[in-house]
Every structure is written in structure tokens, then in C-alpha cells.
């Protein structure tokens, strides 16, 4: 194991051992729910539209999934099965306590010890930039995905490069904030899959949940706050293609199953 991976593991074991209160992932307040679900809703909606399918047709693996917040969102969307993996055993224990619908597996995202094409969909949100080799993390996701990959990570744009955080520090352990864009995502996918027929889509999004949460609360939170925040994101979306701070990469393998379904 690379020492960077070991340090991340130690740090996150420590972080996850210090709290067992992850209830915010299950918050039912409309504003909080909207903010937590938003990026995954966009990615999944897009994937279902492209593949003309429903979540119930897919088994999903989440990597770098922590205590399973994203797993719960996917289970709520109706995916057939959801497996959450993370390098931290404490995170996975937390995940098992939080949501009994989720299957779990402790795994290093740079070296997933499962066969090729084990899951239909493999998803990551805010995880690859914790790896010493983020590109390896993405190619591992592609390897174990039978049908599709969704990656939601920071975007490499001029503003983010100038103003964004370069190094993230979790309890003294530092990781580089690796940022993606359309070209990088496409090149990584193509170098790995070569000429296998596939579809690659990259959407540039905004993610300013901390600020939006404050804005929503100024307007009373709950349903009213949610409507205000939806409006703010709709306005920001007009510029997302040029300035958005998040890359949502979609890779769809053009498998016979996919063709059969259409
Ligand atoms: C910022 S947290 C995000 C967790 C989750 N996606 C969320 O939003 O709650 C990053 C996660 O990556 C995990 N992680 C770091 N290095 C990893 C590795 N090499 N393999 C798998 N997981 C890793 C950490 O344990 C942590 O749970």
C-alpha cells in the first residue's frame, strides 16, 4: 500500500472513531435534503435518461463512500442493491449501523479486490481526490463497472485553480485537491477502455452547499429556504458551463445488455 493511502486510512479511522452521529445524512428537512441529494440526483437522472432504464435495474457500488450517506440516497432512489465501500473499517461499521439496506465492503479504491464488471454502476462523490493516484481510482472504477461509472469531483477551472484550495488537511494529513475537466476525464477513460464502444458525458456543475445552506436559512429554511436555494442554483447554472466548480463525469459502456434494453 502506498504510504499516502496508509496515512489517509489512519486519519479517517481516527475521524470516524470520534463520532457516531451521522444523522444529518438522514435529515428530512426539505432544504437539507435538497442540498444533500442534488448532485447525485443530477448524475442519476442523466444516466437513466441516456440508458433508458430505471434505478431498480442496477446494482451499485459506491467507493470512498464513508458512512454511506450517498449509499442511502441511492437506496432511496430505488437502486436494486447498493454496496458502500471505503478504506476505513470504522466508516463501514458506521455505515452498517446507519442503514441496514446497504451492503458494505472495506476496500482500497486504488486496488479494488473484486473481479472486473462486478457491479452495474460504480459511483464516487468527493473521494478520488483523497487518493495519491486519482486516475488509478477512476480506471479501477471503470474496470469493476459492468455498465456505467459516475464521478463527482472538483473541477479544474481558472477560478478554482486561482482561488480554490490546493491542499486539504484532515488532522495533519494532507491530500492534494486533484481537479478534473472534460478533457482529462475523456483522456483517462479512452486510454483505459481503448476502442470499446462507449459513451462519455461530462457536465460542469456548481456545488456551494455551505453557502446555500446559510442563504436558505436566512429565508426561513425548510420548504421556503429550499425554493430560494433552487432559484439560486438555477441562476448559477446559467454560468455553470464556464465557471462551475464541480465535474460530473459519466461513462457508459455500450454493452449488449444496454442495447437489448433500448
Ligand atoms: C471526504 S470523505 C467523503 C466520504 C463520502 N463520499 C461522503 O461524502 O461522506 C473521503 C473518504 O474517502 C475515504 N478514502 C480515503 N482514501 C481511500 C482509499 N485509498 N480507498 C478507499 N477509500 C478511501 C476516506 O476514508 C473517506 O471516507
Q: Give the helix/strand class.
A: alpha/beta
Quaternary state of this entry equals single chain
Largest sheet: 7 strands, mixed
Number of helices: 11
Distance between the termini: 42 Å
How much of the polypeptide forms β-strand, as a percent range?
Answer: 15-25%
Mean pLDDT: 94
- Element-by-element helix/strand order: HHEHEHEEHEHEEHEHHHEH
CATH topology type: Rossmann fold
Neighbour order of strands in the largest sheet: 3-2-1-4-5-9-8
Gross geometry:
globular
Helix content: 40-55%
The CATH class designation is Alpha Beta
According to CATH, the homologous superfamily is Vaccinia Virus protein VP39
The poorly predicted ranges are 256-262
**Shape-level CATH architecture:** 3-Layer(aba) Sandwich
Radius of gyration equals: 18 Å
Amino acid at each position: 500500500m502506498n504510504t499516502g493511502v496508509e496515512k489517509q486510512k489512519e486519519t479517517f479511522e481516527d475521524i470516524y472513531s470520534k463520532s457516531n452521529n451521522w444523522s444529518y445524512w438522514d435529515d428530512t428537512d426539505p432544504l437539507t435534503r435538497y442540498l444533500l441529494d442534488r448532485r447525485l440526483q443530477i448524475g442519476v437522472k442523466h444516466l437513466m435518461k441516456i440508458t433508458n432504464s430505471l434505478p431498480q435495474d442496477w446494482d451499485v457500488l459506491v467507493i470512498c463512500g464513508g458512512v454511506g450517506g450517498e449509499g442511502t440516497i441511492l437506496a432511496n432512489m430505488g437502486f436494486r442493491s447498493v454496496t458502500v465501500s471505503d478504506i476505513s473499517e470504522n466508516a463501514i461499521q458506521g455505515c452498517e449501523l446507519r442503514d441496514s439496506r446497504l451492503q458494505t465492503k472495506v476496500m482500497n479504491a486504488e486496488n479494488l479486490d473484486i473481479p472486473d464488471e462486478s457491479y452495474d454502476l460504480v459511483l464516487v462523490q468527493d473521494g478520488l481526490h483523497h487518493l495519491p493516484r486519482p486516475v488509478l481510482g477512476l480506471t479501477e472504477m471503470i474496470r469493476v463497472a459492468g455498465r456505467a461509472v459516475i464521478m463527482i469531483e472538483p473541477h479544474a477551472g481558472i477560478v478554482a485553480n486561482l482561488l480554490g484550495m490546493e491542499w486539504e488537511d484532515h488532522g495533519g494529513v494532507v491530500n492534494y485537491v486533484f481537479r478534473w475537466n472534460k478533457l482529462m476525464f475523456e483522456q483517462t477513460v479512452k486510454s483505459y477502455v481503448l476502442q470499446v464502444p462507449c459513451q462519455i458525458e461530462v457536465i460542469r456543475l456548481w456545488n456551494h452547499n455551505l453557502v446555500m445552506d446559510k442563504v436558505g436559512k436566512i429565508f426561513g429554511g425548510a420548504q421556503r429556504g429550499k425554493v430560494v436555494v433552487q432559484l439560486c442554483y438555477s441562476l448559477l447554472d446559467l454560468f455553470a458551463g464556464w465557471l462551475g466548480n464541480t465535474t460530473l463525469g459519466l461513462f457508459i459502456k455500450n454493452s449488449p445488455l444496454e442495447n437489448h434494453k433500448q
